[in-house]
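Encode chain A's predicted structure.
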Amino acid sequence: MSDTDLDTTARTILTDNDQGGYTIPTKGLYPYQWNWDSVFVALGFATFDQDRAWRELEMLFEGQWRDGMVPHILFRKDDPSYFPGPSVWGTDGGPIPSSGHSQPPVAATVVRDLVDADATGQSLDRAAALLPGLMAWHRWYLSYRDPKDQGVLAVIHPWESGRDNLPDWDDALRAVEVKDIEPYERKDTSHVDPAMRPHKEDYDRYLSIMAACRGVDWDPAEVARSCPFFVVDPGVTFIFLRANRDLLHLAEKLGKTEEASEIRGWIAKMEAGAKILWHDELKAHVALDQRSGKQTDGISSASFLAPYAGLTDGETLGALQAHFDRIAGKVRYLMPSYDPEHKSYEPLRYWRGPVWAMINYMIARGFAEAGDKARAERLRADTAALVRESGFAEYFSPETAEGAGGGSFSWTAAIWLTWASPSHVEQAA
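Encoded structure for chain A:
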């Protein structure tokens, strides 16, 4: 299939997965609206339908909770093909049935991208309408995922990180007591090879965490205090720091001086806080289990998001460039979601090794902004090669390019359109 044909296919995937203003990740496996999926999808729609891109974001914020959280899943309809559905979550925090925690807060960055790409200036009104919701969501993160005011963000569930079965969660997850769960039937493994999905024992603990949070009625302060899983995540932390920088730009552009001042304080705190996650021996930022006080021992693809967050000091950038080159010598396609030299690496099991297009996009953006155009281009070229080889899969083997997980995947199509496609590169030149 030619690159032009791939462009057409990518647009078709987005329109086929459109449910009337919001987009599902893929049919069957993921039948609802997912938070960061929708935000990346908006970038794809923006390449051919600006209004539809804004609508994606606006519909996501329709599900914002009263306390400011934007949930990771909005259950806009009851679909028995997905587990766990709304009855298992047992939430009552917002106007739409939803899950009980959030997902990486990419939205402010994409809102800024849509504004910056609009030469007419007409998008400012839509950005202004979203600004209060964005501010409330960011305040929620700082209040309930950084209760010690350290300038780093924890996740209460592996799903909140967006990187469900990452090896970084293994030890913290093993410490979760399996209890208070009813017999259940997973649906994901009926859509996808079980060898590409989390294990049964992982799911038992995922559901046990949910039960603990449900037991305190998903009260965010009590969840932060008592949830059995509370792990600081460099992925969410770096995405949030970047989002704050972009939110500041929006606030200044909209003349919101009080909001801008507040955001500057957030940025300063988080720039200092990121040092907590630095692993002196590994020379990278890693996760930190707040319950045990232990750092994790592996380098994930999220470690490479430090430049995307604006952390480009010589030590950080130099160390990441060295890790980049080392890993490039171990796999055919970058960037594996976990270090291929780590004992827990698995090239086809979800977040334990596979390449994800949207992570490559963010890593490449950070390297490019730090002046490292060569490594940024390597990531774009590898992403394009994976799509050419295996289509718009959910994720890919870094060793063979085999596509895995769901097919006709929305955010893979979106990242192709907005970044990886040679057609986009030629237009940007």
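The beta strands are 33-34, 73-74, 154-155, 231-232, 278-279, 284-285, 288-289, 395-396, 403-404.
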